[in-house]
Amino acid sequence: MSTVIKPRTGTKLVKEALAQMLKGGVIMDVVNAEQAKIAEEAGAVAVMALERVPADIRADGGVARMSDPELIIQILESVSIPVMAKARIGHFVEAQILESLGVDCVDESEVLTPADEEFHIDKSQFTIPFVCGAKNLGEALRRIGEGAAMMRTKGEAGTGDVVEAVRHARTILGEIRRLHGMPKEELMSYAKNIGAPYDLVVKVAAEGKLPVVNFAAGGIATPADAALMMQLGVDGVFVGSGIFKSGNPMQRAQAIVKATTFYKDPEVLAKVSRNLGEAMVGRNCRDLAPSENLASRGW
Amino acid sequence: MNQDSTNIVIGVLALQGDFAEHIKMLEQCGVSAKAVRYAEELDHIDGLIIPGGESTAVAKLTDEGSAPIFSAIKAKIAPSEKVGASSAFSTPVNAMPVYGTCMGSIFLAKEIEGSSQGRLAVMDIKVKRNAFGPQRRSFESDLKIDALGSEAFPAVFIRAPVIVECGPKVQVLSAIDEGIVMARQDTLLVTAFHPEITNDLRVHQYFLGMVQEYRQAQSTAVRDSQVPEPAQV
């Protein structure tokens, strides 16, 4: 028989491992317990609790903050899958509150109104893992340097336009391909140029991949969008407004889940894409005013 | 591993979860590994690993392709029930070895506390999902597991289940205060923790040992079947 010797919670390995278990899955934005149950029933690997989905945040304007803790508790009680919740960039007290509620992961998210325009949260101080958005490799490695256990593309949330998620995934993965195998004497300058911690640049150059799981997010609205991001090389997808702003959330959620697993199988993709009803009404990213551009929040 | 291991092929269920980490571990053990998403990909494998992931999500993904994959997996495991011997482990023929980590143990279990979700239900265990609570209670710890030798095993538990009850054919290989975290029943192995995200190959090597026993039992059975059988009574 065996005995436990000193269980250790909140280690880097334990935090990064949660994200490992979510790979190949779909994480869905939900604003209440009812939506969370639909997401779980459709096969989501986790739900993301927030006050309003990004499309509504865009439409309503104003300051977007962490959800009401009461709503988060209701969501936690309604599903068995992991529950994530969004905190504002730099708002470490919102993150402390979310951790105390028992959420499984915090998204320090540009979708909410930033609380600090200079500094992000020191994520290494928390027991639970954080996911953060990035547009390029330098930004991703800065967040990982602060303790993020999972990354995602920023994309352009609440638009239903996948173009920015594609741009960010291609940028990050392309930069990793160029860095992989770069001669050692070039790495310090490279780290300086992209503003990334040197030790993480060395690690990515050696391994040819990010040290943490990397999902796509921001504008994914259809099963084909999800499969596109998977074929580009991300580990999984977040779907925000795309599900509950569409005509038939359950069916669309199930279809995106299947498309994320069978992303290389056009027959499955064709089958699940049929008769899904209205997709969310999109906003073309090119028509956004600079002030409406969420991806430029954070650095 | 002995020279026998070179042509072993292990499938890893790749619908969702950390299947890539298992494939990497198997390759480090010197065997071939392949991702399995469709029932037909179960042919020509010597064993199967069901990785960590979200069981409620994976249960929705098992019916794509020409045949549902759960019933195909079950058909490759289930014959064990007819053969069962009374010794600690029997190695029945035609009962493909399967190793489930975390989510995998939930799918193999006959009973899941408070849930009727889709599963294989082939191992005589009752599991409690998410037995430790939310992610802030997930942990790593060094477990002494006699079957793996004297050195402690670096076990990582992520929103992990535990086994709360098991039948007489199940041997407990490791238990902690909250419940059983590693167990075996004939050709089935489960751990509540995730060896695939560590650098320690011993659990995978233990499973490959089970696969080799199974292959030997199978080839012996083939040899025996070529000898004229005594008349049935």
Mean pLDDT of chain A: 95
Strand tally of chain A: 9
Shape type of chain B: globular
Average of per-residue pLDDT values of chain B: 89
Instruction: Going across the biggest sheet of chain B, name each strand in turn.
Output: 2-1-3-4-12-11-10
Largest sheet of chain B: 7 strands, mixed
Q: How helix-rich are the residues of chain A, as a percent range? A: 40-55%
Overall radius of gyration of chain A: 19 Å
SSE inventory with pairings:
The complex is a heterodimer of chains A (299) and B (233).
Chain A: E1 4-9, H1 12-22, E2 26-30, H2 33-42, E3 46-49, H3 54-60, H4 69-78, E4 83-88, H5 92-101, E5 105-109, E6 130-134, H6 137-145, E7 150-153, H7 163-179, H8 184-194, H9 198-207, E8 213-215, H10 223-232, E9 237-239, H11 241-244, H12 249-261, H13 266-273
Parallel strand pairs in A: 2-3, 2-9, 3-4, 4-5, 5-6, 6-7, 7-8
Chain B: E1 9-13, H1 19-28, E2 32-36, E3 47-50, H2 55-58, H3 69-77, H4 80-83, E4 98-101, H5 103-108, E5 109-112, E6 123-128, E7 139-143, E8 153-157, E9 162-166, E10 171-176, E11 179-185, E12 188-191, H6 202-226
Parallel strand pairs in B: 1-2, 1-3, 3-4, 4-12, 5-6
Antiparallel strand pairs in B: 6-9, 7-8, 10-11, 11-12
Structure write-up:
The complex is a heterodimer of chains A (299) and B (233). With 299 residues, chain A is of the alpha/beta class. Chain A is built from 13 helices and 9 strands. Chain A has helices spanning 12-22, 33-42, 54-60, 69-78, 92-101, 137-145, 163-179, 184-194, 198-207, 223-232, 241-244, 249-261, 266-273, and strands at residues 4-9, 26-30, 46-49, 83-88, 105-109, 130-134, 150-153, 213-215, 237-239. Chain A has an 8-stranded parallel β-sheet with strand order 8-7-6-5-4-3-2-9, sandwiched between helices. In chain A, helix 2 packs parallel to helix 4 (69-78), helix 8 packs across helix 9 (198-207) and helix 12 (249-261) packs antiparallel against helix 13. The radius of gyration of chain A is 19 Å and the shape is globular. Chain B has 233 residues and is an alpha/beta fold. Residues 80-87 of chain B have low confidence and may be disordered. Chain B has one domain: Class I glutamine amidotransferase (GATase) domain (Rossmann fold). Helices cover 25% and strands 26% of the residues of chain B. In chain B, a hairpin with a 2-residue loop joins strand 10 and strand 11 (179-185). Chain B has a 7-stranded mixed β-sheet with strand order 2-1-3-4-12-11-10. At the A-B interface, strand 1, helix 1 and helix 12 of A face helix 1, strand 7 and strand 10 of B.
